[in-house]
Amino acid sequence: MSRADLPLQSCSIARAVAQVGDEWTILILREMFLGTRRFDDFLRQTRMSSHLLAGRLKKLETLGAIRREAYSEHPPRSEYRLTTMGRDLWPVIIALKQWGDCWLGDGDAPVQIVHKGCGRLTKPQITCPDCGQVMGARDAKAELTESYERERQAAWRHT
Amino acid sequence: MSRADLPLQSCSIARAVAQVGDEWTILILREMFLGTRRFDDFLRQTRMSSHLLAGRLKKLETLGAIRREAYSEHPPRSEYRLTTMGRDLWPVIIALKQWGDCWLGDGDAPVQIVHKGCGRLTKPQITCPDCGQVMGARDAKAELTESYERERQAAWRHT
DNA sequence: CATAGTAACTTTAAAAATAGAAGTTAGTAA
DNA sequence: TTACTAACTTCTATTTTTAAAGTTACTATG
Predict the structure, then answer these.
(1) In a 3-state reduction of DSSP, which class is residue B5?
(2) Which of A25, A159, B2, B76 measures 20 to 30 Å from A80, CA to CA?
(3) Do the Cβ atoms of B95 and B85 come closer than 8 Å?
(4) Please, what are the domains in chain A?
(5) What are the average pLDDT values for consecutive 10-residue runs of chain B, which has 159 residues?
């Protein structure tokens, strides 16, 4: 299967990955959350090629995760901003950051998060909304819908 | 800059992305969290090419996120299992899943999460460990270390 | 007014990664 | 003996990415 078919899968992770699961898109999102809005600033901060940046921005815009807004007509200039859909990717970026800080870091994390609500430096964590406890991989069990279960077993059978 | 240079960046997100920020690695991790352990099962469930799967598993093993364990000597057969480092990527997968379910889903999520602690279906959320409140992008402010700030401003100047 | 500079891209060509198929190794099962 | 499985590796065609140069539409400087 090629990556082009990922959006068609019934797994929502596969679909998410098809849209934002590549190196450069994630770096663009990082920049967005750091406040970068302009083409050349994305270029400078990520050092990706302009060709790719243009393509990725277009893809994110088509998807609806960012929107382009003109800040000058003459000459034509525009900014890119996150939509609600795009802002909802924050947990993904934060999760990557924390993992990177923890397992690949060399000393201090270059970026720290301040919780505006309480004003403190914080390391956001995943919790269960029902009982409030912190959650990790071992506290969770995946439950598949019947149809998804069938789909996965079908893959097992005939190849 | 090419993707090969990502691991050298001082940003921990860039470093994380260099290791696990590609389509197929994320799908492999999804399978790991669903309990898949064997080469051919990864192949069947992700439908990636065996060439790529072999490469990605090797990379994850070298990194230390998974380990290979023989479950038979004759014939030689092995399983892949998450290490603690690998299990710590759970929040990344969960964040992608929730975003996918919310923004790209068509009806029911194919996978649901049960919190073993309280036994309930749950949608894990990000909270501030200090005050306990749920957090989103708008509740957070990024604070850069001085050296990282300087590094970013240097990119701005001379090109 | 000519030259330099900036922002936001697009085009091109060469290099690298991927996809799909076929092949390999070391067995077990009919 | 033939078929089949698990876990890969090799091969080639196609696609994607990289890096560099070019384009468009201006503004600023001497």
Answers:
(1) helix
(2) B2
(3) no
(4) 1-88 (1.10.10.10), 90-159 (no CATH)
(5) 94 97 98 97 96 97 96 87 98 98 94 96 97 96 96 74
Nucleotide D8, nearest residue via CA and C1':
B54
- Closest residue on chain A to B22 (Cα): A22
Number of A/B CB contacts below 8 angstroms equals 307
Partner residue opposite A10 with nearest CB, options B110, B121, B126: B110
Does residue A3 approach strand C to less than 7 Å at its CB?
A: yes
Distance A48 CA to D16 C1' (A): 14
All residues at 6 or more sequence positions from A116 whose CB lies less than 8 Å from its CB, including other chains: B138, B139, B140, B141
Read off the pTM: 0.94
d(CA A143, CA A149) in angstroms, rounded, equals 9
